[in-house]
Amino acid sequence: MRDRSLDVAITGLHARLPGPEDGDKWWAAVCAGETMTTHHGPSALAAMGVPAHVYTAQDYVPVRGCVQDSDRFDAELFGISPREAELIDPQHRLMLEASWAALEDAGCDPLADRLRTAVFASSSTSRYMARIVAGEHVSPDVLESLTVGAGRDFMAARIAYRLGLEGPAVGVLTACSSSLVAVHLAVQALNSGDCDQAVVVAAAVGFPQAGYTYVRGGIMSVDGQCRPFDARATGTVGGSGVVAVVLRRFDDVRADVRSHGVILGSAVNNDGSGKAGFNAPSARGQVAAIRAALRAGDVDPSSLGYLEAHGTGTYVGDPIEWSAMSTALRVAGLRGGRIPVGAVKANIGHLDAAAGLASVFKVLQVLRHGQVPPVANFATLNPLLADGDSPLCVPTEVAEWSGPAPRRAGVSSFGIGGTNAHVIVEEAPPEPDDPPAPDRPSIVVLSGIRPSAVDRAAALLAEHLADHEVAVPDVAYTLRVGRAALAERLAVTGRSRVDLAEALRAGVRQVRGRVPASGPRPLVVLFPGQGAQRPGMALPFLDGLPGFPAALDECLGHFVSAGLVREALCDKDFPAERLNATELAQPALFALEYAAARALVQLGVAPVAYAGHSLGELTAACLAGALDLATAAEVVGLRARAMQSCPAGAMVAVTCTESEARALAADAGLAVAAVNSPSGCVLSGPVEAVETLTRRVAGRVPVRRLRTTHAFHSASMEPAVATLRAHLTGRRGSRSTVPFVSTVDGQVVAPGTESPLEMFADSARGTVRFADGVAALLDRFPGALAVEAGPGQALSGMVTAVGMDAVPLSQNGDHDVALSLAALWVQGQPVDLAPLSPAARRLHLPVSTFGGDRHVAPEAAVVPVTPAAPTAAPITLLNVAEEVADAWRSLLGVPGLTPESDFYACGGDSLLAVRLLRRLEETLAVEIPLRDLMLARALGDQVRLVERLLEDPDE
Length: 955
What we know:
Layout: E1 8-16, H1 23-31, E2 38-39, H2 42-48, H3 52-55, E3 60-61, E4 63-64, E5 72-73, H4 82-86, H5 90-105, E6 117-123, H6 127-133, H7 140-150, H8 155-163, E7 169-171, H9 178-192, E8 197-204, E9 212-213, E10 241-249, H10 250-253, E11 261-270, H11 283-296, E12 306-308, H12 317-330, E13 339-342, H13 345-348, H14 355-369, E14 371-372, E15 392-393, E16 399-400, E17 408-414, E18 419-427, E19 442-448, H15 451-467, H16 472-481, E20 488-494, H17 497-506, E21 510-514, E22 523-527, H18 539-544, H19 548-556, H20 562-570, H21 576-580, H22 582-602, E23 609-612, H23 615-623, H24 629-644, E24 650-654, H25 658-668, E25 671-677, E26 680-685, H26 687-697, E27 703-705, H27 718-728, E28 732-735, E29 740-742, E30 747-749, E31 754-756, H28 759-762, H29 770-780, E32 785-788, H30 794-802, E33 805-808, H31 817-826, E34 853-854, H32 877-892, H33 910-924, H34 930-935, H35 939-951
Parallel strand pairs: 6-7, 6-8, 12-13, 12-17, 13-15, 22-23, 22-32, 32-33
Antiparallel strand pairs: 1-10, 1-11, 2-4, 3-9, 5-34, 8-10, 11-18, 14-16, 17-18, 19-20, 20-21, 24-26, 24-27, 25-26, 28-31, 29-30
Helix pairs in contact: 5-8, 9-14, 11-12, 15-17, 19-22, 20-22, 22-23, 22-24, 23-24, 24-27, 32-33, 32-35
C-alpha cells in the first residue's frame, strides 16, 4: 500500500488554450493530431497594429496559437473599475479569472472559502505595457498604475487580494519552466504546512496575438509549424493561453473532493555552467531533474506509461531532451520504445511561462480518458534521436492506454537559463459508489454578477446534467459551498438530475431575484386563520422544511388531542369535514404555523415582526414572545372549543371597500368580520342572511363563500368571548421580544409589551383589521417582505394588495416548500441552505463563464485629462457636482453615475482617492481633508463635502 502522506491532489483545473473552448472538443482535436494555431491574413495583422513593413517582410511568419477575446475582462466581478482594468496586463486579468474558475472547479467558493490558500503565479513579459509606454505623454500617475497593473511582482498578490486568499502569494519566473516550477513550489508549501491549498496559475498572452519574425539559428520555426522530434523540425511557434490548477494535500481531500489527478513527486534544478551556453539545454541537468522527481515520489520508472516532453521542436533541443529522458528511464531496465512521448506545443504553440501547466493539463486528459494522442505534425523521427535501445516512442495515431495501472505520467519543462522541472502525475483514484439519494427535493443555486451570467451558467449546468450521471445531492452541495453568492440569483428544485435539467431549461420549479444593494429587506412572517386548513397540509413542510418535524413534535406535545391533530396534518385522506370542525382546525393550524416559523428561524431567517389573521394572531403573539408555547396552546384549545359550541353560521368574502362592505352588512343583517385589503372584506352572520346577500349582489359585487361552519367575528361569537374572558381575565402574558400586530385595532405591539390575555378573547368577536396592521408594519419597516407560514397563499394576496411583497411557503398542497425557501435566498434573505443540501461530495461542474467588456488602453486612452485652471468665477452646486463627476469618470472609467454611486463599489481604492483629492484641489482651489473625502463614499456626499469647504474653508 502506497504511503500517501506527501502526495498532492489536483482538485481544481481551468484552461483557456488555443483551439475549441469546450474541453471535450479540445481533447478530440488533440487526439486527431490537429494543429490549433492561427494563420493571420494581412488585414487581421493590420487590425492588430502590426506595421505593414513588418508583416510583408519575407521572414515574417504570421502564425500563433491564439485565445479568443483575450482583451475581455469581467472587471465588475472583481471590484475593479474600467479604468484600472485598462491598466492591468491582459495576462494578469486572465489569471484572475482562471484562478476564480479553478477554485470553483475544486468546489471552493472563491470569495468565502476559509482554507489558507497560497498563490503561485507566472506570466510572460508584458508586451501590453511595452506597447503603451512606447507612446508619448503617459503621466506619472498612469505610469505608476501601469507598473502595478503589468508588473510581474504584483500578479500573485493581486489574485490573493481580490479573492481574499491568505497563504503565501509568490511570483515564479524561470522562463519557459516557470509554471511547472510553480507547481513544485506549491507542493513543497503544502507539505511544509505553509498553506492548506494552493492555486498555481500561469498565462502567456501576446499583445497583439500576432506572428513573429523568423531569425536563422533562433528557436522559432521557419514555416509556422512546430514539429517535435520530427526530422523536419526547425523550431517552435508562439502560443497564448492561461491555465490554473488547485492543489491540496491528498489526505485532506479524499472524503469529499473529486480530484483530477495526484502529484506523486516533483523536482527542480539548474544546469549550472555545464552546458554550451546560457541559452543551451543540458542533458545532464534534465536527467537529474527526472530522476529526482521519481525519487521524491517513490515512483518506479517502470510504472510510467507516458511522458509529456518539453518538446519545442528545435533540431538540437529535441535530441538533448530525448537523450535525457531515455537515460533517466534506462536505469529501471526499460527498453524497446515502450513509453509514448507527447508534446502539446505541436498542437497549440509554445505558451512560454504557461507551457508547463499546459502540459499538465494535457497529461490530466491522457490519464482521465486512458488515451494517448499522436504528436501533431510528426512524420519521421529526427535522425539525431535514432536509438534502438531507447524506451521512448513517438505515437502517430491515437491509442488506448497500454501502460501499467494505475496510470502514471511524467511532465517535463525546461527554461532558458537552465532551470529544469519534472513532475510525476497519477490518475485520480476511483470514486466510491454514490450513496442512495434521499427522497426529498434538493435546492440547486446559481448566481452571477449580471443576469446574462446566470443565464449562461444555467444553460451549461442543464447540459452537464443531461449528459453526466451525477448525484443530485452532490450537485446541490457543490454549488452551495463551491460558488460565490453574487447579486443576481437563480434557484431550482428537483429530486433527479432530469428534474433539475428540465427546471433550468424550461423555468419550471425555478425562482430568480436580485439581492438588494442595501442588504436584505425586513422580513415579516404571516399566519393565516381558520379556512386555510386541509387534510395532509403538513406534508409539504415535512418534505421540504428542515427543522419542521422536531418543532411540530414540540408543539403537539401541548395538546391533549395530539394524535388526532397529527393525523389530520399528515394524512391527505383524512376526512375534510372532520378537519373543518373548529375544535380540530384551529389546533392543527396553530401547530403547523408554529412549527413552520420555528423552522424558518432555525434556518437563519430573522423576522422583524409577526402578523396573524384571526387564529393566526395567537401564533404571532407566541412567536413574538408574548405567550409561551404552553399558554398559547392552552388558549388555542380553549378558543377552538368555545367557538365550536357557538351557533352555526357562514362567512363570505366580498371585493369592495370597507365602507361599501359596511353598507352591505347593514342591509343584510351581517357583521364586517375582517378588512383584509383596501378592496377586500369578509362579512359574517347567519347562513340564510349570507345566502340572501350572495344572491342579491350576484353579478355586481364579486363574492366567495368561505370554508367555515361558523360566523366568526360576529355577534354569534359572544358566548365564546364570555367563556374566554372567564378563563383569561386577570392573566398576563410574557414581555414580547419581537413586534407583532394586534388585529383588534391594527396596531403594532412593541417589543417589551406585556399583553393581557383577555385581548385574545376580544379578537374572537371584533373585526379583524388585517389591512391596517400590514400598513402599520410597512410604515415601520419600509420595503418589508412577507413570508406566509401556513398552508396556502390567501394572506400573500392580501398583503400584496396593501403594498407588501410576499412569498407563500405552501400553495394548494403540492407547492415545493424548498422552492419558497430558495425564493427567499434569491432575494438576499439569510437562509441557511445547508440543511437542504447537506454535506456530500464536491463535483467538477461547469464553472463561471466570464463576459466582461473589452479593456484596452491605447496610448491616447492613458493621457490624463488636464485639470481646468482654477477660476475666480463663483462656484455653484452645478459645476461642483459636474467637476466631481468628471473626476470620477476620468479615474474610474464608470459611466452612468448617480449621486448614490459608491466610489469603492465602482472600483476605487485608497490610491485612487489620493489622486481624486489632488485633482479636485487643483481644479477647485480648495483644501480637502483626505480622511473626510474617503469617508464620503457616495458621489453626492463628496459633492456636498466640497461645497461645504468652498463655503467655509476653515470648517
